[in-house]
Amino acid sequence: MFKSLVIISLIFKSIIGFGCYSCVSDSKYLGAPLRRILGSQRDTFYWPIDGKSQVCHNDIPHFSRNHIITSDISGQLCSGRDSCITLSPNLDLNFTIRGCVRQILRYELGEEKILQKDGCYLIRSKPLFPGETAISYVGCICSKAYCNHEAQQSIVDERMINDTKLIYELLPILPRSIGDGTSNSGQYSGLSGEHPYGNTRKLIVKIEKQKHERRQMNNIEKIGKLLKNDKDNILNKNDKWSNGNIPLIFNKCRIKTGPSLLNSS
Which residues contact 102 (CB under 8 A, 6 or more apart)? Predict the structure, then answer.
């Protein structure tokens, strides 16, 4: 009986499927150089062939009931992996891509171990041509049906990155779970002057514990060297000073030795 129920549930799931919101911002509003860079990249995402939308970067309301109330947003059934993604360039512009992880991310990128768990990530794309500007992307992955509802993320500060890694985990300054099925429509309803992308959550690059500890060890070593140098300087000064008059005390009698006594004798 139990095996029969499992088989029925699997068949039911395969019929219904796992869905994500699917859309891509209209590229006609982008400048020609940026449009060419986005369109020619080969290591980050597949450009959706349909689902062009002028509001793809906005928050999608009523996601908890899987309702799509605008013709600009469609649904996409996932294959191979039940996860959704919201992807946007880490630039000051409104441009977003939504869909299933397996259908949006390039295969090699989607298979990266770090991207197998829910969360937001900074993904650095390699330039297609020498001398061309490389673009980073902010991608948020979640594993609930139609969980990729959030508005486009704000720009992530990349100035603290100084190595050659291509993927960085992002942490929220204002924590809020991704795709948790709850939404405050008053807070996340759309664009505003204070939050230009309609998302109040600020993301920062996670600093690896090992790097943090290594920096601490380097700082400790530097401080140790400075203290040693100071100690050596003090000893050198004492050595120079000891070549002059040295006060000696014997039985509370103060006797001076040095060049002055030798001259007097």
Answer: 78, 79, 80, 81, 83, 110
